[in-house]
Amino acid sequence: MRIATFNINGVNTRLSNLKVWLEDTRPDVICLQELKASTSSFPETALRDLGYHSVWVGEARWNGVAIASRHGMPVVTRRSLPGDAKDTQSRYVEAAVEGVLIACLYLPNGNPRPGPKFDYKLAWFDWLLTHARGLLKLDAPVVLAGDFNVVPTDADIYDPRSWITNALLQPEPRASFAQLLAEGWTDALAERYPHDPQWTFWAYLRKAWERDAGLRIDHLLLNDAAATRLTDAGVDREVRGQPGASDHAPVWIELR
């Protein structure tokens, strides 16, 4: 089973890019983030025409997450992350596909910092840590997939000096990500490329794509039951170079 995650940065704006990639690669499950589409404007029919059944949580202009499957309708288990009932941002959806529980998440960016956006990022990460502990204990394979908006280490960015004040590189979110790994989650891309970090994001500014000035912020984390089935992982980086592309590239894993 191939499971991919892709921050599409506007699902309707980049629908043609998404279609080309799906037709070329045919992942079994795709997790999308930053839909920037209300619940009613998600392109469900267009994805169904490609053979995908979708579940999603939309939000006009910002955020939004979706899980689409070629193996029937995903069975939704959650449409929000537990932690704060007053939090209305659409950043989490969780569903089962073919016996694998998949959580699609879009963690807050946190900029500018210091300030309320960075505080919200840290709070959201705490909610994720708490919920993930329960998922980690499940006997079924579990995948946490999405844009975590954290560069785990200085090796996961082309040059940390130019991003040193950015929320993606701060000690607190890095510590939260490291805690996920310490508690038992496997970072699939790092497992596959331990000495050759793979970029997943290239900013639109300063010709970052042309200079290969990338970052690794899109991750697939696996519990033990999923990690033992991992056979491969990678980044479809050529998607980032297409006209009108998202500033992220799709990241994928293969599970036996």
UniProtKB/TrEMBL annotation:
Give the Enzyme Commission number.
3.1.11.2
Q: Which residues bind Mg(2+)?
A: N7, E34, D147, N149, D247, H248
| Enzyme class at the top of the EC tree | hydrolase
Q: Which residues form the active site?
A: Y106, D147, H248
Q: Which domain of life is it from?
A: Bacteria
Q: How is the cofactor bound?
A: Probably binds two magnesium or manganese ions per subunit.
Query: Under what name is this protein listed?
Result: Exodeoxyribonuclease-3
Originating organism = Brevundimonas variabilis
